[in-house]
UniProtKB/TrEMBL annotation:
Positions of the N-acetyltransferase domain: 8-165
Protein name per UniProt: N-acetyltransferase domain-containing protein
CDD domains linked: NAT_SF
Record-annotated membrane-spanning stretches: none
InterPro entries documented for this protein: Acyl_CoA_acyltransferase, Bact_Acetyltransf, GNAT_dom
SUPFAM superfamilies per UniProt: Acyl-CoA N-acyltransferases (Nat) (SSF55729)
Record keywords, A-Z: Acyltransferase, Transferase
GO molecular function terms listed in the Swiss-Prot or TrEMBL record: acyltransferase activity, transferring groups other than amino-acyl groups
Keyword hit for Ribosomal protein: no
Pfam assignment, any one: Acetyltransf_1
PANTHER family assigned to the protein according to its UniProt record, in alphabetical order: AMINOALKYLPHOSPHONATE N-ACETYLTRANSFERASE-RELATED-RELATED (PTHR43877)
Length: 165
């Protein structure tokens, strides 16, 4: 699966992308989850966790990265074709607003459709206004479901969004 635009390539993640994926996640959480205050400022996962994420999301699972011409990872997404869940979507703040998230989302949707999924769904923090706007623009709509999750001991409400593929 290859998407190229604006000197950005979307491709399947490789094992050597793991630590860059982790760095994107940490930077995106620190910049985007400010509603969590100090809780969002410390890395949530250790190096091995990112290696495991890449290993666990080998095809047929979907783990894609957006990389620039130098190979630097700008963002990533993960999806589970067995149920249509969009599991992760993060873009480094330095690359925000360049269409990287839209490219990743489009590529993940293509991967889900290729696996036979008719619908995609995801959960997003209720307070994450930027993510909610991105998903709304991509055609996702709330289905009324709410999930409570835990972020370092803090309860977070997440809304479930769905999109027909």
């Amino acid at each position: 699966m290859q998407f190229e635009s604006l000197d950005i390539e979307v491709r399947h993640a490789r094992s050597d992308d793991a630590q860059a994926i982790g760095a994107v996640f940490d930077a995106a959480v620190q910049a985007g989850w400010t509603y969590l205050g100090e809780l969002a400022k410390k890395p949530m996962f250790v190096s091995h966790d990112w290696d495991q994420l890449v290993a666990d999301h080998a095809p047929p699972n979907v783990l894609l990265v957006a990389a620039d011409k130098t190979g630097r990872v700008l963002g990533f997404t993960a999806a589970h074709p067995e149920d249509g869940e969009m599991f992760l979507l993060f873009v480094h703040p330095a690359s925000a607003g360049r269409g990287v998230g839209r490219m990743l989302l489009s590529a993940a949707h293509e991967g889900l459709r290729a696996a036979g999924c008719k619908q995609a769904f995801l959960f997003v923090h209720e307070q994450n206004r930027r993510a909610l706007a991105v998903y709304k623009a991509a055609g996702y709509r709330p289905d009324g479901s709410i999930r409570q999750s835990d972020f370092r001991g803090t309860a977070i409400r997440e809304v479930r969004l769905v999109k027909e593929l």
